Prior knowledge:
Elements: H1 7-23, H2 25-47, H3 59-90, H4 93-98, H5 103-132, H6 140-164, H7 168-171, H8 173-184, H9 199-203, H10 208-220, H11 227-251
Amino acid sequence: MSGGLNLRGAVAIFKHEMMRMFRTIFGSILSPVITTSLYLVVFGAAIGSRMELPGGVDYGAFIIPGLLMLTLLSESTSNASFGIYMPKFTGAIYELLSAPVGVAETLIGFVGAAAVKSLILAAIILGTAALIIDYEIVHPFYAFGFILLVAASFSLLGFIIGLWANGFEKLQIVPLLILMPLTFLGGTFYPISVLPEPWQTVAMINPVVYLVNGLRWTFLGTSDFPILVSLGFTLTFLMICIGIIAWIFKTGWRLRE
């Protein structure tokens, strides 16, 4: 199938990655859902009744987009990084590189599967949240599109991390030590507008702020920043990741080590 997309190869990788999710369903699905549900119960249902936000927004509904973003970033990155790292670790990466499978097929398989896992996880979390907190999605079409865009972007980031890592501990450096703190400091539990200076200015340096606020706009119809700012940032990040992956496959960096 030279000169065209090897759809069969892409589907084979995709199916393999999806089957791995079902084999490890507790770590892939149940664990993040339980963790997010606990956040919703503690912060949304218990503490939320004592919190007052500008505009009379319910605190429980306010934190749902932030908690969903926290899960999306960590799970998309972890799933994609582990997915491509395991072939490197076992040596199966050489069979993949010698097969009639190019960059497009590899990304469809690994990154596509990681993004789909995140979408499934997001749907389960939103369904679970509806049992705990009364909320609505003001712009459901935009919410789905933004969630898909974020899942794809950070699955690409995870793919890069999986190629970069030369040990299991490095797979967790970015999700646990970088993404999670940035998300907690990125307006997950509070609006940036209530912060005093200079902390409001400092918070605006955090790139995750724009992701959280973009998703919050699709849920509530309001946010600290215009949706176009969040969308532009996410699309720029997506293109940067695609460019880095194209360079990796062109140069073979970390692929044949």
